[in-house]
Amino acid sequence: MSETQRMVTVRVPAKINLLLAVGPRRPDGFHELSTVFCAVGLYDTVTASPATDLSVRLTGPESAGLPADARNLAWRAAVLLAEHVGIEPRVRLSIDKAIPVAAGLAGGSADAAATLLACARLWNLTVEPAARDALAAELGSDVSFALHGGCALGTGRGERLRPVPATAASSWVLAAASGGLSTPQVYAELDRQRAAGTGSPAVGGPEPVIAALGSGDPHLLADRLGNDLEPAALALAPYLGATLAAGRRLGALGGLVSGSGPTCAFLAPDGEAAERLAQGLLASGTCRFARAVVGGAARPKLTVRSNQS
Ligand code: C5P
């Protein structure tokens, strides 16, 4: 007898931080942030299918070396959601990875957010948005933003969000390095630099970036980008200096390390210029991956398919 099987797919974008102002380290080990998140058009896809237990399968160009067990944030997201409603986490998660790992693009957080959305639908749960946001925050500082996409101001450790309107989509190039950087190590390096008095001046508040996003003027936005973690990322991965210099030489309006790095994000005047910049960056040999993407408009997208089996 044939049975109808439902599969839920969530396509979820990467993020960059247009501004990342890092405050002091809190007693809980996290740093107080003021950050402007911007979702970009580079996507992972998470498919949740019915199963008798929990499993994770990873495919796609950026899946090499990733754990398919409880070390994977998507696995933990399924367990946390199931615990929240008092059921067993019975789901097969297939994750198609296009977002580079440990890159400052919140790829793992995106997979966790997609898993929360997909499992809630697969298991027919009604989870209030506030409860879902709380589960996301428990999983990681960037997971709450990944549930929403678009542009947002993040405060607290990054989990308290306020949507930020962007008048126009922006054109970016993401240039990823061969290796990854550990987020805790980058924050620890910033603390070390500050304690030693060798840190760079702080980047300031988010209002100028929010105003530039509202104006739709990429030149204005380029002047206002900033990341307090950049000097720490550069200290741990000095080769990023060459990537940033190449992007500027090749005509980027502005460029910065995304989040804790090592991906660099470059702002271009328009989509065609971004495509040319991506090609130039790849040819420069200063990165292994350069992709033109649109910023500000990307959001998670959920689809449900029914298969006869
Ligand atoms: O929340 P998430 O798991 O992404 O954080 C990873 C690490 O990054 C934390 O353990 C902490 O070392 C650092 N972090 C921080 N302050 C934040 C966010 C992250 O120090 N606001």
Question: Concise description?
Answer:
By secondary structure, the protein is an alpha+beta fold. The chain has helices at 73-85, 107-122, 129-139, 143-148, 183-195, 207-215, 218-224, 230-236, 240-249, 271-284; strands at 4-25, 31-49, 54-59, 91-96, 151-156, 160-163, 170-176, 226-227, 254-257, 264-268, 289-295, 301-308.
List the helices and strands and how they pair.
Elements: E1 4-25, E2 31-49, E3 54-59, H1 73-85, E4 91-96, H2 107-122, H3 129-139, H4 143-148, E5 151-156, E6 160-163, E7 170-176, H5 183-195, H6 207-215, H7 218-224, E8 226-227, H8 230-236, H9 240-249, E9 254-257, E10 264-268, H10 271-284, E11 289-295, E12 301-308
Parallel strand pairs: 1-8, 3-4
Antiparallel strand pairs: 1-2, 1-12, 2-4, 2-5, 5-6, 7-10, 7-11, 9-10
Cytidine-5'-monophosphate binds next to strand 2 and helix 5.
